[in-house]
UniProtKB/TrEMBL annotation:
Metabolic or biological pathway, per its Swiss-Prot or TrEMBL entry: Purine metabolism; GMP biosynthesis; GMP from XMP (L-Gln route): step 1/1
Organism annotation: Phoenicibacter congonensis
Binding site for ATP: 225-231
Top-level taxonomy: Bacteria, Bacillati, Actinomycetota, Coriobacteriia, Eggerthellales
Gene for this chain: guaA
UniProtKB keywords: ATP-binding, Glutamine amidotransferase, GMP biosynthesis, Ligase, Nucleotide-binding, Purine biosynthesis
Protein name: GMP synthase [glutamine-hydrolyzing]
GO MF annotation terms: ATP binding; GMP synthase activity
Length: 531
């Protein structure tokens, strides 16, 4: 039996900048952890049957009017508690200590002097920690003692050993806190007595069990794009509920070469789901004819997706059990990026997601988002555990509007043919380049491997000469960037022989091309995509 989730650490989210990292760090240490809204009531907390609670940081002051607060009864439930930054201050404030303004805030590294104690067991008396605060606890609540100080902050850590409440002004979850991992281990294993028993391998099992219980004999519908997140959700749901899952794959004709065939092969043969391949290629081409504005293209593609999706939903609704649930591949960073679930918790997430989906009148679903606690690399690892092929699990990021925003100007089937063929060559050569780098550096994600790489077709022609003939054909632009999160990117300093091979292959193998350019702009000032 999978008992890995019988131990569970709940991370109360006070809107922390670093908060999302805490649950992740705890899972990496082998204990299941999930984030919950900070305003859960004591009875809701008890219902979740946690082993320990962690209170995250957050940007507010405990004295601010709309400061996130807790149900004070949560502190009386008897669970061990670890609090950081705002979490440290709210515990002091709620239990009758005093939070005040220090003369100057502390931001960045600080030297901490500890007085020993269970949380600091095995760490040096003087250690570097990461601070980011203006307010500070100036008087500890009754029953607490000061466990560590910095020059600026007298109560840099406090503890109530009897109640197993340990709090720090600094952030143990960030890498710059040199003993942060040890402090988390001390809390989880020595103080709470938990066992290391959770890994990505048993995540699949427990998620499948949860989905089965939630869905029962109802049906679930999912828009499958072929991207990592929706593919992992589809694989997970297929293991949990099989043909009760309807996977709607809207083929807009703007995917990369061979992708639709691969998605269909995986989800109609390897996984047992009700797979619907909607061939909408012609409809999309018609809708996009003559449209050259990138935002207009995005809008048309997004709106048509939901039309196609709801057509299938409506057709399917007439045969079999009701379709009660809509599954989505939302992952934790999506929630952070969209600004949802800051301090308001799950309810606000569900609302904001619903707002993005243009439900037809009278249609509503409950949402299932099984990946919403997890980070991309955890989701990829889960996909591998579930048996998805590497080509799906380790796909480079690909925009929802697909090749439409890589054909500058208006789109037609001939331009799509050229771009698909060109893009396949760029990917083949740079996949091979990344693989060589991985072997040379012994690192699968070496600093200089290309993170995203593709071809772009500009809306111009240029003169060339092939054989003895003058040509007047299209150039193609190769884009390859190094990045970790797409927020910033540098153009990849590809070796000349790699560029030369890409160039000669493109012109030799793709009819309609006679020139190759390499984009050597970083982001900023450019963006990764051209449109
Ligand atoms: P930019 O071009 O803004 O792209 O530097 C950053 C990342 O986002 C992807 N991208 C999109 N993804 N829909 C998407 O799903 C879009 O409209 C879109 N535009 C850009 C881009 O591929 C890169 O990874």
């Amino acid at each position: 039996m999978d008992n890995s989730k019988q131990q569970k650490v709940l991370v109360f989210d006070f809107g922390a900048q670093y908060g999302q990292l805490i649950a992740r760090r705890i899972r990496d240490l082998g204990v299941y952890s999930e984030i919950v809204p900070c305003d859960l009531s004591a009875s809701e907390v008890r219902e979740k049957n946690p082993s320990a609670l962690v209170f995250s940081g957050g940007p507010a002051s405990v004295y601010a009017e709309d400061a996130p607060s807790i149900d004070p009864k949560v502190l009386e439930l008897g669970y061990p508690i670890l609090g950081f930054c705002y979490g440290h201050q709210i515990i002091a404030h709620t239990l009758g200590g005093k939070v005040g303004h220090t003369n100057k805030g502390e931001y960045g590294p600080a030297e901490l002097h500890t007085k020993g104690g269970a949380l600091f067991e095995g760490t040096p008396e003087s250690q570097i920690v990461w601070m980011s605060h203006r307010d500070a606890v100036v008087e500890v609540p009754a029953g607490f003692t000061v466990a560590a100080s910095t020059d600026v902050c007298e109560v840099a850590a406090m503890q109530n050993v009897e109640k197993k409440i340990f709090t720090t002004q600094f952030h143990p979850e960030v890498k710059h806190t040199e003993c942060g991992k040890q402090l988390l281990e001390n809390f989880l294993f020595a103080i709470c007595g938990l066992e290391k028993n959770w890994s990505i391998d048993n995540l699949a099992e427990s998620l499948i069990a949860e989905i089965k219980e939630k869905v029962g004999d109802k049906r679930v519908i999912l828009g499958l794009s072929g991207g990592v997140d929706s593919s992992v959700v589809a694989a997970l749901l297929s293991k949990a509920i099989g043909k009760q899952l309807i996977c709607v794959f809207v083929n807009h004709g703007l995917l990369r070469k061979n992708e639709p065939e691969e998605v269909e092969a995986v989800f109609s043969r390897q996984f047992d789901v009700d797979f619907v391949h909607v061939h909408a290629e012609e409809r999309y081409l018609e809708l996009l004819r003559g449209v050259d504005d990138p935002e207009q293209k995005r809008k048309i593609i997004g709106t048509q997706f939901w039309k196609e999706f709801f057509n299938v939903a409506q057709e399917k609704a007439t045969d079999g059990e009701p379709i009660t649930f809509l599954a989505q591949g939302t992952i934790y960073p999506d929630i952070i990026e969209s600004g949802a679930r800051k301090t308001g918790g799950k309810a606000s997430t569900i609302k904001s997601h619903h707002n993005l989906i243009p439900f037809p009148d009278g249609v509503s679903f409950d949402l299932i988002e099984p990946l919403d606690h997890f980070f991309k690399d955890e989701v990829r690892a889960l996909g591998t555990t579930l048996g998805l092929p590497d080509s799906l699990v380790h796909r480079q990021p690909f925009p929802g509007p697909g090749l439409a925003i890589r054909i500058i100007g208006d789109i037609d089937s001939e331009k799509l043919r050229i771009l698909k063929d060109a893009d396949a060559i760029v990917r083949e050569e740079l996949d091979a380049y990344n693989a060589r780098l991985a072997v040379e550096t012994g690192d699968l994600h070496s600093q200089h491997s290309c993170w995203q790489y593709f071809a772009v077709l500009p809306d111009i022609k240029s003169v060339g000469v092939m054989g003895d003939e003058r040509t007047y054909e299209r150039p193609v632009i190769v884009r390859a960037v190094e990045s970790s999160d797409a927020m910033t990117a540098d153009w990849a300093k590809l070796p000349h022989d790699v560029l030369a091979k890409i160039s000669s292959r493109l012109v030799a193998e793709v009819p309609g091309l006679n020139r190759v350019c390499y984009d050597i702009t970083s982001k900023p000032p450019a963006t990764i995509e051209w449109e």
